[in-house]
Amino acid sequence: MLRQFLAYLESLGVWGVLALTFIDSAGIPVTVGLDAYLIFLCVRQPESALLVTVAAVLGSAAGNIVLYTLARRGGQRFLEKRDQGGRIRKVAHWFHRYGMLTVFVPALVPIPLPLKAFVILTGVFGVRPVIFLSTIFLARILRYGGEAWLGVQMGAGAADYLRQHAGRLAGFAVALFAVLYAAAWLVERRRRG
């Protein structure tokens, strides 16, 4: 039944993108390759690429804010009850400093990375909603906008291009995280010094 529902959403085009990205970002894994589906729609109807991108970004942001809100409401109490030796406080301290990098990078790159776990931590550790949403919006605009652009420019070969370069994308994700982490560390060090 779930497969039939997902197939129905796929048939809705732009509205399907909005619904599928919402469902996936809210914590319910979608078996459909969302990135490939977005590219497919842009290949089929290049004139709708901007609309597809906007729908994907809005659906993803709305789904992520649902997951974030649920974690924010109940997650802190859950962790406090199980905190042994102050480990949670140490993780929270680190996360408040550098944690948004762990949200930005997986939200940006189209290879599977554990974004949902970091979204939950963002809610649990009380990261301000504006910072969280800004991070999600920026990453998703770059990701989905880039995929739409690839779909329009490369046509049907765009999804294959992403698959063939998955290793490079993973390397890019690691390098981007390292560079952003180093930059955040330097800024923090200058503030202290």
Overview of the molecule:
The protein has nine helices and no strands. It is mostly helical. The longest helix is centred in the middle third of the chain and has 34 residues, at 49-82. The model has no long low-confidence stretch (mean pLDDT 81). Helix content is 83%, strand content 0%. It is globular and about 55 Å long. It has one domain. Helix 2 runs parallel beside helix 4 and helix 4 (49-82) crosses helix 6 (115-124).
**Tally of contiguous helical segments:** 9
Major sheet, described briefly?
none
Low-confidence stretches: none
Count all strands and give the number.
0
Strand content: under 5%
Secondary structural class: mainly alpha
Shape call:
globular
Topology:
Layout: H1 2-11, H2 14-25, H3 34-44, H4 49-82, H5 87-108, H6 115-124, H7 129-154, H8 157-164, H9 166-192
Keywords:
about 85% helix, about 190 residues, mainly alpha
Could you give a short description of this structure?
The protein has 193 residues and is mainly α. It has helices spanning 2-11, 14-25, 34-44, 49-82, 87-108, 115-124, 129-154, 157-164, 166-192.
